[in-house]
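Predict the holo structure. Ligand: NAP.
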Amino acid sequence: MTTTELAGTTAIVTGASRGFGRAIAAALIARGARVAGIARDRQSLDEVAGDLGDAFIPVAGDAADPDLAGRLVADHQPRTLVLNAGATPIAAPLSQQSWEDFTVNWDSDVRQVFNFTREALTGPLAPGSRVISFSSGAAIAGSPLSGGYAGAKATIRFLSGYAGAEAARRSLGIRFVSVLPQITPDGGVGAPFVTAYAGYNGVSEEQFLSGIGAVLRAGQVGDAVADIASDDAYSSPAYFLTATGIKPAA
Ligand SMILES: NC(=O)c1ccc[n+]([C@@H]2O[C@H](COP(=O)([O-])OP(=O)(O)OC[C@H]3O[C@@H](n4cnc5c(N)ncnc54)[C@H](OP(=O)(O)O)[C@@H]3O)[C@@H](O)[C@H]2O)c1
């Protein structure tokens, strides 16, 4: 097992103002990295900067904007790129969704991962860099109340895998990993769906959560991402993240 020091390195974390992204930024900073944290709402980012200190560099912007991706990768030359930002789809069955509702995660999550991944490959990032993209357990199980979310997240897993194969063929030394967290109320994307799926199944939220086992916490996601970023033993292209740990998904 080879571990790489993150001290003195730079990371970019998208969606760093709350939920998983904030916990990831905190975990990377705890290991000595500087983190450029992206979200659209400047005030929330400034609050995170107040908590995490000077190692957190707030960057207000839309992570799906291709110009922002190009500029940030060029400016920061990140050793670690965490593509976590994601939209919360409406919780409704298909018959109650518009096309705009159905495709929200394609326009934000998939577009963001596409733009940053292309920048990582064309730059290219330095050998030894890591690009960690947020898919979801829903990419395997489906999610009938969240429109195109599961398909968008499955595409992110494919996209990360394609990039990993291209990086290997070009001997770039960049590792691309997708992560598939289980649903949890510990984040803005999962919380409304714990409520929605409890209702869908006619059970309480507590019963729904006990049915999926121990609850995954944002802090565990932060530590898991920092482990995957720094330990070469995590050599799989994709990992499930659950409350019981990190498990290869491929
Ligand atoms: N929570 C779960 O149960 C769960 C399970 C599986 C996978 N995931 C995935 O994990 C990731 C994080 O989820 P979460 O629950 O932690 O979400 P969250 O609490 O809602 O946080 C989302 C973060 O992304 C930012 N964001 C959203 N759209 C953005 C955009 N276009 N540009 C820049 N920033 C943007 C938000 O800030 P602004 O709104 O200010 O931009 C916020 O910082 C998502 O990709 C989600 O799909 C979550």
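The pocket of NAP is lined by residues 14-21, 38-41, 44, 62-64, 84-88, 108-109, 134, 136-137, 181, 183-184, 187-190 (CB under 6 Å). Residues 63 and 175 are 21 Å apart (CA to CA).
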